[in-house]
Amino acid sequence: MGLFDRFRRRGRRSGGSRDADHLRTWAESHRGVEAFLEPRTTVTETTLLLVAHDGEWTRRRVESPKAAFRFAHRLGLPCYEVTKLGYPQRMRDYQARQRILRKRRLRRELGDLGDSG
Predict the structure, then answer these.
(1) What confidence tens digit (pLDDT) does each residue in 52-66 have?
(2) Helix (H/G/I), strand (E/B), else coil: 91
(3) pLDDT mean over 4-17
(4) Cα dist. 24→6, 20, 51, 91 in Å?
(5) Section 9-27 average pLDDT
(6) 107 φ/ψ angles, rounded to the nearest 5 degrees
(7) Do the Cβ atoms of 20 and 67 come closer than 8 Å?
(8) pLDDT for position 88
(9) What is the C-alpha separation between 13 and 19, in angstroms, rounded?
(10) What are phi and psi of 31, to 5 degrees?
(11) N or C: which end of the chain has fewer CB within 10 A?
(12) Is 65 strand, coil or helix?
């Protein structure tokens, strides 16, 4: 056991609890939520993606695929594997709408700057 292993594990445990709390709160405050398991990669840990009826989404780390399915089951959410099903179209549509809104907001802000100068 290395000198800092104890701290590393402790931090991960509390982060996992915060992640679970965030996912639970988010799921309870949105309608039509489905869970999507994203596998671990060389860059990211295993994550659970929650997508609401309108495509709004949130993502947090989970301990393992088994823990993700257990978590979703406890909340009564259907849980799918992204590698088998892919991402839902409503999520992609939501992202596209948000991108358009950000561009409009930026243009408006830049237009306001041009008017004041």
Answers:
(1) 999 999 999 999 999
(2) helix
(3) 56
(4) 27, 6, 13, 19
(5) 78
(6) -60, -40
(7) no
(8) 97
(9) 10
(10) -105, 145
(11) C
(12) helix
What is the token pair recorded at 40? 């671990």
Cα–Cα distance measured from residue 20 to residue 42, given in angstroms and rounded to the nearest whole number: 22
- Residues, the chain, total? 117
Report which of 78, 74, 70, 76 is spatially closest to residue 51, judged by C-alpha positions: 78
Structure tokens at 32: 């039509």
Q: Beta-strand (E) ranges in the chain?
A: 34-38, 47-51, 57-61, 79-81
Angle between helices 65-75 and 5-28 (to 10 degrees): 30
pLDDT at 4 over 60: no
Domain boundaries, the chain: 5-116
Share of the chain above pLDDT 70, in %: 84
Which strands form 47-51's sheet, in the order they lie side by side? 57-61, 47-51, 34-38, 79-81
Q: Look at residue 84 in the predicted model and tell me its pLDDT.
A: 97
